[in-house]
Write a structure and sequence with these properties.
The complex is a heterodimer of chains A (363) and B (302).
Chain A (H helix, E strand, L loop, with lengths): L2 H45 L20 H8 L3 H35 L7 H13 L2 H11 L5 H8 L14 H8 L7 H5 L1 E2 L2 E2 H4 L5 H28 L2 H9 L4 H12 L1 H15 L4 H5 L12 H11 L3 H26 L6 H9 L1 H4 L2
Antiparallel strand pairs in A: 1-2
Chain B lengths: L1 H19 L4 H35 L3 H6 L12 H8 L3 H32 L5 H12 L7 H10 L6 H5 L6 H13 L3 H8 L4 H12 L1 H16 L3 H6 L8 H9 L9 H21 L1 H13 L1
Classes of the chains: A mainly alpha (363), B mainly alpha (302).
């Protein structure tokens, strides 16, 4: 074979590659473009329009209304603002409780199950992971039964003499209930008199309702297994040497975990917190299946409100606007968290002990 | 190799520390610690498993029994009324069939399209590849719930609302899956396919008969994820369909939960429906159990 033939053949391969590159990615580009990019752009237009669901949103009868839909939600003073405020309040408490609890629990489970010598390791992992594979609809149905007024949870509570609440029908806020136990029934005027997004500050501080608490427990139950697997993987990738060195220096198990293992898990911790946060702001399936926002709108979430506003009330512009505000919230919290957990320069004082070791430490 | 070193080191040093401590007191302390660990694990495992046992048990109870003995794992009187009702007197078989149809097509589609795109992004050199990849990452960061209204708008505009096409086609590929396949193809050596290409095989030939068979582990991951994802999907079907003939299990069982088809609470019926819809994903999980547990290891390792 002579050289010129070779080069021409080579270039034809490269030429073919460009064509097949586009050909291979074409289905993905078309599908994602058609059902993800274009829809988002369409919804963005709808959120600035007064489309009522009839006909095409691009027809001449639909007009541009500027930021009307957004301002109705963020300061209209009407029911729309109040519902949106309520939904944000509910979901904020949900996030505030679900994300830390599921992260701690999954890390705890991972540490327990990651022991070198542990009988039935596979069994325990399977047990903890199994709830994660089931669908949110099936779990919600199960939860509605377990937490019904005559359900298993209340039966269990009755064994220890506690009269359980009627979980999914109880709109009272948990924090308000705790304060009520101490005789505080109404908040100070400064809190009850002033409002934010149509909800008084006292109502913002109500805590999750009893009904929402049951959903919070459900979220922890179903997600801890997935995150446990992430932590197990990270724990197995840690080098034993650092822990070993700490052990030699006389650190006990508790110190080793907090000072040595946990700092090394930082990247995984970041992943788990981010995924948890993104997931916890998108509560939809459970509400759709279980409570439809009730009791007393205390399980209303922005995601469900967006659906309800558009599909049930036919206020499509407002529904789309809620979705975009939710999008902004999720992006904001993700970035905020990234900033919070970012690797910072360690101060000189904290660095000193490490600077002295290299001579002895590195072989 | 590294693991053997690690275990050796690990077992060595506690034994050294053992020597420095009293010989008598340690075994009891060790046993106490170990029993505490097991006790804790067993209690946790019971908490995680009990709900599912109660679910299955309750589905065989009568309505009255379910209300009065919510925790009993053995029904007072065995009753298969819930299952008979579901299979003989409701739309449940239709729901199951629809879920199965969608899951099969979506899984096949994702296996093919994700690996095709992942391979191109990992291996083929062409102009615009980086742009496509950047867009893919951007698309991945859009939260799914935000897409409810947008998806409906496009499906409606295309005139495919309330059809199988609307249920299946939008799910045929997913950005995360493409990303997984791309990462996998980058991790395997290019020498084999280069050899085949020098021998004159076309790009698709190389992909189909050489690269794809090597990608089995990643493909299994895609199969697991898309099977589970499409079987458990709810929101997409809510916005894509409305007619009863196109109702999937998730949508149907959700409507059961909110009280259609039933007077009274009817927990055995609802729990039976939820239990049956869990079976396929549970079977899938137990078949690929080893893989699922290892997949995440591999996915995070990098």
């Amino acid at each position: 074979m002579s050289t010129p033939v070779r080069t021409s053949r080579r270039s034809s391969i490269r030429g073919g590659e460009a064509a097949s590159g586009w050909l291979f990615t074409a289905p993905m580009i078309v599908l994602l473009g058609m059902f993800l990019v274009i829809p988002v752009l369409m919804a963005l237009w709808v959120s600035f329009s007064d489309w009522n669901g009839r006909g095409s949103p691009f027809s001449a009868s639909v007009s541009f209304v500027g930021v009307d839909n957004y301002s109705a939600l963020l300061g209209g003073g009407g029911l729309a603002e109040q519902d949106f405020g309520t939904a944000l309040r509910n979901n904020a408490w949900y996030v505030l409780l679900v994300v830390p609890i599921q992260t701690m629990l999954s890390l705890f489970l991972a540490v327990l199950v990651n022991r070198q010598i542990l009988r039935g390791r596979g069994f325990f992992r399977t047990a903890f992971y199994f709830p994660s594979v089931t669908s949110s609809v099936a779990i919600t149905v199960l939860w509605l039964f377990l937490f019904s007024s005559t359900g298993a949870v209340n039966k269990l509570l009755s064994f220890i003499g506690v009269n359980g609440p009627n979980w999914f029908n109880d709109p009272s806020g948990v924090l308000h209930n705790i304060l009520g136990a101490f005789g505080v029934e109404t908040g100070p005027a400064a809190l009850t008199g002033n409002t934010f997004l149509g909800i008084s500050f006292w109502e913002w501080l109500a805590g999750p309702s009893v009904a929402m608490s049951a959903f919070i427990l459900m979220a922890v139950f179903t997600t801890s297994g997935t995150f446990m697997l992430l932590f197990i993987a990270a724990l197995q990738n840690l080098s034993g040497e650092v822990v070993e060195a700490a052990m030699m220096d006389g650190a006990n198990g508790w110190q080793r975990f907090w000072r040595v293992t946990l700092p090394q898990l930082r990247p995984t911790l970041f992943t788990v917190l981010t995924l948890g946060l993104i997931g916890a702001w998108q509560v939809f399936d459970q509400i759709y299946t279980g409570t439809q926002g009730g009791p007393g709108k205390t399980t209303l979430t922005p995601a469900y409100l967006s659906y309800q506003t558009a599909f049930t009330n036919q206020a499509w512009g407002q529904g789309a606007a809620i979705a975009f505000i939710l999008f902004v919230i999720i992006v904001f919290f993700t970035l905020f968290q990234r900033w919070l957990l970012a690797e910072r320069k360690v101060s000189a004082r904290r660095m000193r002990p490490y600077l002295q070791t290299p001579a002895g430490g590195s072989k | 190799m590294s693991t053997t070193v690690r275990t050796r080191v690990r077992t060595q040093s506690p034994s050294q520390r053992l020597k420095s401590l009293g010989r008598e007191q340690l075994p009891t302390r060790l046993i106490a610690g170990r029993s505490l660990l097991y006790a804790m694990l067993i209690v946790l495992a019971i908490i995680y498993i009990a709900p599912f046992l109660i679910q299955v048990a309750t589905s065989f109870k009568t309505d009255a029994d379910a209300a009065s003995n919510p925790m009993a794992l053995i029904p007072e009187t065995w009753s298969s009324a819930a299952y008979q009702r579901l299979f003989l007197n409701s739309d449940f078989p239709v729901w199951f069939q629809n879920s199965a149809i969608v899951t099969v097509f979506v899984t096949l589609g994702r296996v093919f399209f994700n690996s095709l795109a992942g391979y191109a992004l990992a291996r083929l050199h062409f102009r615009g590849r980086n742009v496509i990849f950047a867009l893919l990452i951007a698309v991945m960061s859009v939260p799914g719930v935000v897409l409810l209204i947008p998806k409906f708008l496009v499906i409606n505009q295309l005139g495919i609302y309330d059809t199988y096409v609307a249920m299946i086609v939008p799910l045929l590929t997913d950005a995360a899956g493409v990303f997984i396949m791309k990462n996998f193809f980058e991790s395997i050596p290019a020498s084999v396919e280069e050899q085949a290409r020098i021998d004159g095989a076309g790009t698709f030939r190389v992909f189909w008969s050489i690269v794809l068979p090597m990608a089995r582990p990643a493909l299994v991951t895609i199969i697991i994820l898309s099977f589970q994802g499409s079987w458990n999907e709810l929101s997409h079907f809510i916005v894509a369909t409305q007619s009863p003939e196109l109702t999937t299990l998730t949508k149907g069982v959700a409507s059961l939960a909110s009280g259609q088809l039933s007077q009274g609470t009817q927990y055995p019926l609802k729990l039976a429906a939820a239990a049956i819809m869990t079976i396929p994903v549970a079977v899938m999980f137990f078949i690929f159990q080893k893989r699922i547990m290892n997949t995440t290891d591999g996915a995070v390792k990098e």
